[in-house]
Amino acid sequence: MSRQRSMEAILASEYVSIGELTRLTGARYSTLKFYTEEGMLPFEQAEENLTRRYLRESTVELIYRIKRMKTDGLSIPQIKAALKEER
Known about the structure:
Blueprint: H1 7-12, E1 15-16, H2 18-25, H3 29-37, E2 44-45, E3 52-55, H4 56-71, H5 76-86
């Protein structure tokens, strides 16, 4: 198991892991994994170790947008449709 990076190192990185996204946003790991599997959170996958990497700034903003939509009462299908329209 790898050692956790410091918050300073995470904030300086262009790419982060799903675990680091949980630390940045307070969202649960299982929630972010679900959003990823549903195609709501885009990622890149490094072939050498198959680790999913997320662009830090845009993904954190996207997670907060999804949280706001959920707070506003939108369902997952509605959120997915709204995100698809934005792209």
